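Record type: monomer structure entry
Structure origin: computed from sequence
Chain ID: A
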Amino acid sequence: MSQLSNIKTVREILSRHGFSFSKKLGQNFIVNPSVCPRIAELGGVGPDTGVLEIGPGVGVLTWELASRAKKVVAIELDQRLLPVLAQTLEEFHNVCVIQGDVLQIDLADLIQREFAGMEVVICANLPYYITSPILMRLLESKLPVRSITVMVQKEAAVRICAQPGSRQAGALSAAVRYYAQPQILFQVSRGSFLPAPEVDSAVIRLDVRQQPAVSPRDEALFFRVIRAGFSQRRKTLPNALSAGLGIDKAQAAAALERAGVPATARAEQLTLEDFCRLTSQIFEELFHKKV
């Protein structure tokens, strides 16, 4: 099945199984033969690697991963694709396909059970509509994985990998940088998919940190502060924090001053270290004293 990225071959296989694409599931399968080998290579897949794949589709990327990795476990939500994958991946004995929702599966348990003794990476062609929830689930679960290499909408890639201080920076990019070091690897045109989406894509890799980038006093509050700061981007931080955290504007301004952050600053100008100091001030001065 080495011709799996050929559009004609894919159409014939899908037709044989009576498969029709689901817009609800955001199904766009890779058919550009140059894309998947690059994902596998740049994702760091090797003979001793275990790979967790999300959304294998017809198995184009899975085929490349299985050709290089020690073991691949692919999670597919759409039950209709299971017989398709059974055909396209029949030559491999190192692939396990699991039907289920990646947002519901206990991924830590799955990795421990399926990849004992292996270094693990995650690879995926993520549906556009659910990119952020899946990425945050993977990161927040603090899984024992080396990296996460995924294909996402090009605009999403820019936001996810945005540097602090840039206009593209947001709550998502801050959260991603807390857990990992992100980078855009390469772009993929819309014509590389079947059916072709209306936008271009990009492949990004998140190199997961062994420890978070900073050590906030209260991690939950740290993310509340970040979300509050970015919730009203056009407002200065005292206004945004006041609205987002339910505190007085004067209290927010005082916390910013003690953290060494100008009251005129906006959230996208802050580094993770700035948010960490700000969180400590808000914790100590506004919440801790109430206990």
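Annotation 1: The chain has two domains: 7-208, 219-290.
Annotation 2: Residues 7-208 form a domain with the Rossmann fold fold (CATH 3.40.50.150).
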